[in-house]
Write a structure and sequence with these properties.
The protein has 165 residues and is of the alpha+beta class. The chain contains 3 helices and 7 strands. It has a single domain, classed as Dna Ligase, domain 1, CATH 3.30.1490. Helix 2 packs antiparallel against helix 3. It is globular, with a radius of gyration of 25 Å.
Amino acid sequence: MPRPLLTNGLFAVLLTTCLLALGGCSNEKAPRATTPDPRADGAMTFYRLDGDRYPGDPVPPGTTLLHGYSVIKACGIADRETREEILNAFEAGIAGHQGGIPVDCFRPRHAIRIVQDGVTTDHLICFECSNWMSWTNDEQSGGGDTSDAPRRTFDRILDECTSSN
């Protein structure tokens, strides 16, 4: 005996709704919007800075400065894997910051410079006060808080690199 059309149609609607709902419950994340990745193109230089010398202090002859801070070591990072390691550590430090009372020392010991498509972006990082600041084409453009999680990675990479300074 054939079933009424209403019952078959209702079943089809319920089945379709359930399948769509189950598809939406997947654990996979939707792909994020793609943005230009500084790790893919351009140039990266990784710096060790002298955070003990404040901008405005007398500069010893022959000293290279990055936003007023003395450069101790500068390493060109051509290897994509190392570039990703540096940037992933930087991003993990920002994500891992636990809050707290901000300290206003800003004595950066590390810096990342990315030059891509004619734009120079510098990130200076101070683990003493858990802050970072960014400059885009020599204009301060941002900053925020960080944990000290990247410090070991940064120090290891700088210790292993041959200075290009």
